[in-house]
Task: structure prediction
Amino acid sequence: MSAVHVSSVESAIRRARDERDGALIGYLPAGFPDLAGSIDAAVALAENGVDVIELGLPYSDPVMDGAVIQAATQQALAGGFRLRDGFEAVRQITKQTDVPVLLMTYWNPVTQYGTQRFADDLAAAGGAGLITPDLIPDEGSEWLTASERTGLDRVFLAAPTSSDVRLRAAVDASRGFVYAVSTMGITGARTDVDAAARTLVGRLRAAGATSTCVGVGISSATQVAEVLEYADGAIVGSALVTALADGGVAGVAETAAQLARGTSITK
Result:
């Protein structure tokens, strides 16, 4: 990973690893159930043990998202969510917490908006960087340039099926952490986090990764603890979105606190 820029995300993960077993990264979509509600929910994550906030930009063709997240993002879009609202959400969240906020976005909205302009507006809003699930480093030169210029983190994905060459490319291009996808397919809570994740994290470490977080399928404190036996962070999405849908901000706060217990099993 690049050493030129001090990553707020990697610093938060390192701090969590030093003080506890590792980091908890929580995903919620911007604009769900509405813009104000999504801001309050994200702040609640920060207040209840989440080390890094992953704020999803609703998109009309979410190829990686499972049913729970798709339903939430479709509701946000139906409610009139616009890309500029994502920057406003980041601005309001970072006013209320020091927990770093990464936007997770498919690549098409960034290019439509203008990559350089997007980077400038995200940095101005106080955002930490981007998670780009459908962008590979080989095709990311414009984003690499923009993020270098603005000091934003860039998180690329790695899958169990990725070749060693592709893993090295993801490690070299990423800043903040590398996102290890634990199972092939879409997001959603599962009873077992795929054992392939452990192997994948080992391969990423061998490729030089200094910070690797595992996502897709984690929904309990026990699973968070299992992941933190070998990874630097555990990423939870669908379980938090469900909690927000069912119980509002209080529900998502309670679920985050429960999940955070999984970061302190041995320390």
Observations:
- The beta strands are 23-29, 52-56, 101-104, 129-131, 153-155, 157-158, 178-181, 212-215, 233-236.
- The chain has one domain: 8-261.
